[in-house]
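Section 5.1 Outputs to date
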Amino acid sequence: MKFRILGSVAALSLALATPALAEKTAGEHMDDSAIATSVNSKLLAEKGVPSSDVNVEVYKGVVLLSGFVKTQAEKDAAGSVAKRASGVKDVRNQLVIHESTSMGTKLDDTMLVGKVKAALVDAADVKSGQINVEARGGIVQLGGFVTSAGMRDRALNVAKGVEGVKRVDDALFVKPE
């Protein structure tokens, strides 16, 4: 009985909060969540794809792959896997090819990601929660679906202005209508 009530409360909360959070209907959110889960599980099962390095976001059936991989073959394989998932309308493969880095560089990149995220949070006209930030060797990638071209441009400029950023890779897309 207790679990049935908790389940009902959780379902109601999800149904009420989802449209406000993502500017989608509850059904679209659930479809996108199912697509993202499907793509992620297929990436995990695929040999030759470093699934932990691939970020998957879905908006109205459009899959965005972002992050860093070591080879073109890994990038191509990830894109191919995503296209095979049920419900996928389009795949935007924005994976960046970059060699492995040393432990010291990884620590520097972790700090750099924190600095870029903090700068995005401080930017009043950027919804930083819509943006994934990754870094490899001082190259920063901003990825995600944003609400406007102006926000996209502002986020890229903010990231470029952070000390230690060598280059900013743009994997931001304005949400399709």
